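[SOLVED] Predicted holo structure with zinc ion

Edit: marking solved, answer below. Original request kept for reference. I posted the sequence and ligand SMILES and asked for the 3D complex as structure tokens.
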Amino acid sequence: MARIYFSSRHSGNFGDHVGDDPGLVSRRRSSLARALSVPPIAFMNQVHGNVVQVITEAPTSAPTCDALVTSQRGLGLAVMVADCIPLLLTSDVAVAAVHVGRAGLVSEISLKAIAIMRDLGAHQIAATVGPSICRNCYEVAPHMYQEISSQLSATATNDLLHSLDLVAGLRQQLGSQVVDFSDLHICAKESSDHFSYRREQETGRQVGVVIL
Ligand SMILES: [Zn+2]
């Protein structure tokens, strides 16, 4: 049975690219691994791309990618976010941690991660979405709204506000590829317990961690 975990801002910042003391970030990452009883957790150098990396052991340095997949039991995979969707995919034989921002949704990185999980033997895949910006808070430029909502109709909310519903878009995109889709329904921007790039600009990153 795979395990999943989502941090709040009370566990501190896990991002090593947001101006925080690297020593502190590294210590927080180590304590999280100890708390979850796993070896060093695998983090990514996230770039809003659509590269999926399969790993079999905790890497010594973070690979540049936006999704990690493993079929190795007891290994922790982390995705860092502050508004983007932390998507954790679970099954009996493989798991994935996926960074789904607007770009990742458009480039279908989640479907790519699912295809790789299937190659590793996964059948019944469940999706869990952690704290991310909600449909009322994610206003974008009108042309961007038109472009994305015409590709994925579920992202459309209000043609006057131009606010995108990324979670609904993800749910639509995953469709029958997943047997279950759970959403924590926590808006990072509205929750004082979470980091939010839209609310704070200079801010930390919370994490979603999945362990097979
Ligand atoms: Zn919101």
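OP edit: The longest strand covers residues 76-81. Thanks to everyone who chimed in.
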